[in-house]
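Milestone M4 deliverable, item 7.
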Amino acid sequence: MVQIEVEYEGGLRTRATHGPSSATLLTDAPVDNHGKGESFSPTDLVATALGTCMLTIMGIVAERHGWSFVGARASVEKKMVTEPVRKIGALEVVISVPGELEPAARTALEKAALACPVHKTLGSNVDMPVRFEWGAPVA
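Output delivered:
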């Protein structure tokens, strides 16, 4: 179990504290929803969770097999919808992996990404197309 404490600071800003590490992060409401957009919005954190989860699970598989995965990147484009209610409509993911990997390794890593807990949790509630770019240049 992990406890996250969230405090409303006013001005549509919150401060979240991660219980085990005491690390903190701020959220702000986005500009298109009455906020200043000075930090991640709550829905930005959902997009961030998806990208970081996918790379983390892929990293676990890569490390288990001794495959190079350092420098892999995920780009997540969040698209909001307003009908029938304001919510995340789509999270479009592009995962770029540098270096050369055999087809079997690529298949295993793709399967791992799509099995990440965040992807599974969001399930059919959000459109989540994922594209993999293999042999991508290191940024």
